[in-house]
């Protein structure tokens, strides 16, 4: 009897140990699940209201920002936006047709001219927060008058401040029967393009590199390349600041729209304001000759309801920006580019160690 009771007791103890181990395993899994859930929620809050990572996919901001740079974007600088859509966190999947009421919370800084800004690409056909993120330099504030003359930007009548990283195309002439070395140009910091004209090359580079190349023995002349005023590169584009011939090296004086501005619409200027009225401010617009009908009312005057900005890439001749698709609404501003936390050179398959943890200066 004693042996029988002893075996039953041992069996009970083994079962109890198995239950305890099972409880410990469940407890361990629950702790990990809770930790992962907390981390995901914390990351989502940080990404929504504080900071977001962003990768530079194109050369439109070189040499200021390089293809392969990974940025930290501060959403607190200009004020974070509350959620606009419902979707799967950390993906581009969102619920179609549902846009949430949203607001922009106070930021600790004001957006300023020459800031490097991340924003939603305005002409994407998607809810604002689901649009592609772009990064450019803000060159025109609401109310500024901008013009571009021979590829030189003017703001309120004065030539815009030059930045060391800004690139443009230069025409380089060399001596007879001499070739310009692409490898030598690349080592100096430029990108060489062959032209049809013998002895003439086009090089995309900064002003500092242009000054260096102008001192080379084989080079006779270096001048900025400018598209002729009558050359039209907009024949295949939906947007243009001009109803006639227009290219990105020339821009007639244009006022950047601002909240409260009343504009008089005409058949000659409607192409500039059409996206603002219909796409960004949600109005119904019809035209009958020179008469406009806005939301069912005959009127040629419209009061703009928010501020707009004019963006340009620092790689001026290799950037599609406001010159090509117009103004950026205030609602589309995401944040300010703050720091490069990592940089990857895909040509050499090596990190750019000199760029890691660099703060971005305007």
TrEMBL record:
Composition bias type Basic and acidic residues, residue spans: 1-12
Keywords assigned: Hydrolase, Protease
Membrane topology: Single-pass type II membrane protein
GO molecular function: serine-type endopeptidase activity; signal peptidase activity
Active site: 60, 136
Location of this chain's protein in the cell: Membrane
Catalysis performed (reactions): Cleavage of hydrophobic, N-terminal signal or leader sequences from secreted and periplasmic proteins
InterPro entries in the cross-refs: LexA/Signal_pep-like_sf (IPR036286), Pept_S26A_signal_pept_1 (IPR000223), Pept_S26A_signal_pept_1_CS (IPR019758), Pept_S26A_signal_pept_1_Lys-AS (IPR019757), Peptidase_S26 (IPR019533)
Annotated spans, Disordered: 1-22
Keyword Hydrolase among record annotations: yes
GO cellular component labels: membrane
PROSITE patterns reported in the protein's UniProt record: SPASE_I_2 (PS00760), SPASE_I_3 (PS00761)
Keyword Protease: yes
Any single GO BP term: signal peptide processing
Biased composition, class Basic residues, residue ranges: 13-22
Domain Peptidase S26: 30-171, 252-342
Enzyme Commission code: 3.4.21.89
Main subcellular location of this protein, as a coarse class: membrane
UniProt similarity note: Belongs to the peptidase S26 family.
Record's protein name: Signal peptidase I
Originating species: Fodinibius roseus
Lineage: Bacteria, Pseudomonadati, Balneolota, Balneolia, Balneolales
């Amino acid at each position: 009897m004693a042996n029988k009771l002893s075996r039953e007791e041992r069996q009970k103890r083994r079962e109890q140990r198995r239950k305890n181990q099972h409880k410990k395993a469940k407890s361990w899994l629950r702790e990990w699940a809770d930790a992962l859930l907390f981390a995901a929620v914390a990351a989502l809050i940080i990404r929504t209201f504080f900071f977001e990572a962003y990768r530079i996919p194109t050369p439109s901001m070189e040499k200021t920002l390089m293809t392969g740079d990974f940025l930290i974007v501060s959403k607190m600088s200009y004020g974070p936006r509350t959620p606009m859509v419902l979707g799967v966190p950390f993906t581009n999947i969102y619920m179609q047709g549902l846009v949430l009421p949203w607001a922009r919370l106070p930021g600790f800084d004001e957006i300023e001219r020459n800031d490097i800004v991340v924003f939603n690409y305005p002409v994407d056909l998607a809810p604002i927060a689901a649009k592609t993120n772009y990064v450019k330099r803000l060159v025109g504030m609401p109310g500024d008058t901008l013009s571009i003359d021979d590829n030189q930007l003017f703001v309120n009548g004065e030539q815009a401040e030059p930045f060391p990283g800004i690139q443009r195309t230069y025409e380089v002439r060399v001596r007879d029967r001499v070739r310009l070395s692409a490898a030598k140009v690349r080592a100096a910091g430029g990108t060489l393009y062959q032209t049809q004209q013998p002895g003439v090359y086009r090089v995309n580079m900064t002003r500092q590199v242009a000054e260096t190349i102008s001192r080379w023995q084989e080079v006779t002349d270096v001048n900025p390349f400018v598209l002729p005023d009558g050359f039209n590169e907009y024949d295949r584009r939906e947007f243009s600041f001009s109803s006639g011939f227009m290219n990105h090296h020339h821009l007639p004086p244009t006022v950047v729209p601002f909240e409260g501005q009343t504009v008089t619409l005409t058949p000659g200027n409607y192409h500039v304001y059409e996206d603002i009225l219909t796409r960004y401010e949600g109005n119904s617009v019809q035209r009958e000759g020179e008469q406009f009908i806005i939301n069912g009312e005959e009127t040629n005057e419209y009061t703009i309801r928010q501020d707009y900005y004019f963006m340009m890439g620092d790689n001026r001749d290799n950037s599609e920006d406001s010159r090509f698709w117009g103004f950026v609404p205030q609602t589309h501003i995401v944040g300010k580019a703050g720091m490069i936390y990592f940089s990857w050179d895909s040509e050499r398959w090596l990190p750019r160690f000199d760029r890691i943890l660099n703060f971005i200066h305007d």
